[in-house]
């Protein structure tokens, strides 16, 4: 039963992320030189995003309800930081056979498995949202003073005045749990999460190459070969 429930929760998260990726595809596929196509495309993306926001909220509510009732988490054994050397080395050995990826890549329709940043290693991650949350928690530990100032940083407010970080949960569409009193928006596609992580690393004074991401298909391919 628990295995089926966990599979259902993972599929719900995957559908959500696939829909977000599709929105990116549609936007970038619009021919901006064709006025008629541009107008139709912009209207489609606008309505699509409205419907997606409603689905996102419903998916979050369903996921929370299922997890609370069944006591099964979509990230049941995942995203556990390695704080001691022996455990860190065990996780590194498991991740190393897969190929590390960096934030200059396209992550559309790809699924995360883990990441390493400095002395922290995470594995068994299922979704980009949970990877983003784990990275945010590590960054908040590494530079707490800059982290708590993110809501005031104009880099993380869009031209439409949409905030990526806020101390008020009402400012965000799909907020992650507060980290040191700061909520992070999570209604993003994989590539939008990538872009936010790039900005975070820069603003918090961490080199881009210090964050290594491992993808699920790389690990699965390695296991299949072995």
Entry summary:
52% of the residues lie in helices and 9% in strands. The protein is of the alpha+beta class and 226 residues long. A hairpin with a 2-residue loop joins strand 2 and strand 3 (120-122).
Q: What would your notes on this structure say?
A:
- Helix 1 (2-28) packs antiparallel against helix 2 (35-70) and helix 4 (128-142) packs parallel to helix 6.
- Strand 2 (112-117) and strand 3 (120-122) form a beta hairpin.
- By secondary structure, the protein is α+β, with helices and mostly antiparallel strands.
- Helix content is 52%, strand content 9%.
- The chain has helices spanning 2-28, 35-70, 85-95, 128-142, 144-147, 190-203, 216-225; strands at 100-101, 112-117, 120-122, 165-166, 183-184, 211-215.
- A four-stranded antiparallel β-sheet has the order 1-6-2-3, sandwiched between helices. The chain has a two-stranded antiparallel ribbon with strand order 4-5.
- The protein has two domains: 2-70; 85-225, no CATH class.
- Mean pLDDT is 85; it is low at 76-80 and 222-226.
- It contains seven helices and six strands, in the order αααβββααββαβα.
- The relative contact order is 0.15.
